[in-house]
Specification:
Length: about 170
């Protein structure tokens, strides 16, 4: 049972990449079927979770939605492979998990600040600090799984260092 739970935790970062892939696919579905309520539901469910990173990726020169879907699907497939082989590729798993964590932090960085803060309307010397905590249940679940995935890679690295020095 413990191995199954740890595998699910290691799959947490992969779910972020899969959600990004689904968000890109929802853009295509919305363009193809603009009157379909399911297309809108998928798009609006994933929009608050990954809006900024997805649009930054799609704003890169030469990147189309199909390219983003293929890239995110490839990264998600690599994450599944990393999660199923926990003793191998520890550095790749570390990078995979922490990039997913950074994506979620960037996605939620401005979620709690008001629009007036961005316009420079705050008094001098006063800062609005807020944690980049997701505002949706899906975002919170993804953030929890990604943080646990990062902690599992840290634990594995520390375990390796301890066994080498004994």
């Amino acid at each position: 049972m413990r191995a199954l739970i740890l595998t699910f935790v290691r799959l947490g970062p992969t779910l972020v990449y899969a959600a990004g892939m689904l968000f890109a696919a929802s853009i295509i579905l919305l363009a193809t079927f603009p009157g379909n309520p399911s297309s809108w539901a998928l798009y609006l469910t994933l929009l608050p979770v990954l809006r900024l990173p997805a649009f930054v990726l799609l704003d890169l020169p030469g990147v189309e939605v199909w390219h983003a879907i293929a890239a995110l699907a490839s990264i998600a497939a690599c994450g599944v492979y990393f999660a199923l082989q926990p003793k191998r590729f520890i550095r790749a798993r570390f990078i995979h998990a922490h990039v997913a964590l950074l994506v979620l932090i960037v996605a939620n960085a401005g979620a709690h600040s008001s629009q007036a803060v961005g316009l420079g309307l705050t008094p001098p010397g006063e800062y609005h600090w807020s944690l980049p905590i997701p505002t949706t249940p899906l975002g919170a679940a993804l953030a929890t799984l990604v943080v646990l995935g990062c902690l599992s890679t840290h634990a594995e690295i520390i375990r390796r260092i301890r066994t080498r020095h004994r």
